[in-house]
Amino acid sequence: MGKGCLAVTKYFLFLFNLIFFLSGVVVMGFGLWLLLDNQSFIVILNNSTGVKIACYTMIGVGALSMLMGFLGCVGAIYEVRCLLGLYFTCLLLILIAQIAAGALIYFQKDVLNDEMSKIVTKVLDNYPGNNSTTEQAWDFIQKNMQCCGWTSRQDWIGNMAIVNSSQMLFPCSCQNISLATVNVLDSGFCDSQTPDWPVYDVGCSSNVESWLLTNIWVILGVCLGVAFTELLGMIFSICLCRNIHAEDYTKVPKY
């Protein structure tokens, strides 16, 4: 490979590692957002070990991607073969792990859906209406997605506060705005004047599924973009590594 091609490869590798570093920032930030945002759906699933592991995995992958991007930038600019080889190996492992995780989610989607349904049902059965963090998140989901329960409003039938009350209570966040006769609270329980609750008939699972289907191309585009960036980084790193004949560690800055 000529010096001109070698220089182009080096700076292209630096550019793609910069993009890879920024991608790691995005992935880690998304994982942190899911864990820390009190109004995200993850609050409802905070009792699921698998969901927490998934979030921490995203944070770890993001941090590792940032580290790999940094190593790739240093290895490309200063032409250090050991860093380029380490960078290539780690990128390959990350890509394999991403493919395995995607396949696992796809083939285990029914199991994940069943687990999610059990967790949400438990949350609804024990919903006391005291405005806790979990309840605020669920009220936010029901109100903004205009839904009630997970599969339908029948999921609320087993709630202990509703069962033990002498009044005809229903969750306020479920109230159908078009059927509302008075202004009610956005959380807790409200008193129904008739046995037929003035709530939305659709469950939140169908709305969540509709949102995922609507944004599926965006999600796939992001995933494919990350994978394409990783493949380019692997190609450039191996090409550059093969054409660096002698390691010159004097190029590495000393601090």
Automatic annotation (TrEMBL):
GO terms for cellular component: plasma membrane. It is found in: Membrane. The chain crosses the membrane at residues 12-36, 56-78, 85-107, 216-241. Its main location: membrane. SUPFAM superfamilies: Tetraspanin. It is a multi-pass membrane protein. It comes from the Eukaryota. Keywords: Membrane, Transmembrane, Transmembrane helix. PANTHER family: CD82 ANTIGEN, TETRASPANIN. Belongs to the tetraspanin (TM4SF) family. This is Tetraspanin.
